[in-house]
Amino acid sequence: MAKTDLIHIRINPETKMAAERIFDRLGINTSYAISLFLNQVIMREGLPFSVEITNKDDLTEAERFASSIDATDGHGTVSAANQRILHLYANGDIDYETALFAIRRNI
């Protein structure tokens, strides 16, 4: 058997659970997914995806809504409380981090 190394990481539990749900649908486990990622880094000699800083002011209202709704883990239905939060965010009354915190608190 080939020798393996152990990697320890700290990750937000919600992020880990959301990723594991996707890995389950793909038929792989977290360890295999991380191995895939690392092998892609080696093959591409860099990250296997684009990393960029988006100016939130450049986002359209629809993109801001989509970004906020994504934070609900795709449950599909946006509660009345979250609709109010999204409305406040779309109008610029609250910032992205505040909206995200409020939405995650309501899940």
| Rounded mean pLDDT score | 79
Domain count: 2
Structural classification:
mainly alpha
Radius of gyration: 18 Å
Envelope shape: elongated
Strand content: under 5%
Q: Considering DSSP H and I runs of 4 or more, what fraction of the residues is helical?
A: 55-70%
SS field, number of helical segments: 5
Main sheet overview: none
Walkthrough of the structure:
By secondary structure, the protein is mainly alpha-helical. The protein folds into two domains: 13-44, no CATH class; 56-106, no CATH class. It is built from five helices and no strands. The protein has helices at 13-26, 30-44, 61-70, 80-90, 96-106. Helix 4 (80-90) runs antiparallel to helix 5. The N and C termini lie far apart (44 Å). 7% of the residues are buried.
